[in-house]
Structure formats: structure tokens, C-alpha cells
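Problem 12. The chain below contains 120 residues. Write out its predicted structure in C-alpha cell notation.
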Amino acid sequence: MAKSEARQKEPMREGAKPDLETAKGLIVKYMAWLEKANYKSAKNRINMIKRLVDLGANLLDPESVKEVLRKQEKWTDDYKMLMTYVYENFAKMEGLSWQRPDTSRKKPCLSYQLKKSWTN
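Solution.
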């Protein structure tokens, strides 16, 4: 097994947060996976995954990630959507079942509002 892969000594209970070393190992593994898959914006994706960890998400628990995303009130819906796509890649690498939460816009976009005001 490569050093970049993190292996836990004991199985983790659902809802338990992995330790920092495990999270770092998962991020390194994700970096290698992105590089192997030839993703161009790997640095941005890695930074986004690190941000989820910093906010308390357990990367091995999709429900934990959804909870962290839900709590981010200052993030735009577009940014949340990007985060879900990045985590979707991570979940694919780990073989996790992940259903993206609804991040649809709650307000019409500005260009729609401007067009509407110009036509009145």
C-alpha cells in the first residue's frame, strides 16, 4: 500500500470524524487520482476539499458533507454547486454513494431581473 493511502486502525463509526492524518491522507490520494485522471483544475479542487475538512466535514460520510454545505449561508448557490461537483469526484474515487443536494438558485439571476425590467 502506498504511503498516500490512509488506513484506519479501527473501523470508524458512522458520524465519527476522521483524524487529521486520515483527512490529509485522503486529500493526497485525491490529488494523485486527479493527476492520473488528467484533471486540469486539480489545485482548485484540492483547495475546495480542504475547505470542507476545515469546516468540519467527514469526507468519508456524505451526509456530513451535505450538512456542512447546508450550513454555509454566505456561500452563493453557484459556489455550493461547485463544491458538490468536487465532492462528487471525491466520492467516485472512494466508491461512496453520493446524491447531490439541491443547490438550485432560490432567486432569479441578475441578468433575468435586468431583462425583465427592460421589457416593462
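Discussion. The chain has one domain: 20-119. Students who got a different answer should revisit the alignment rule from Section 12.3.
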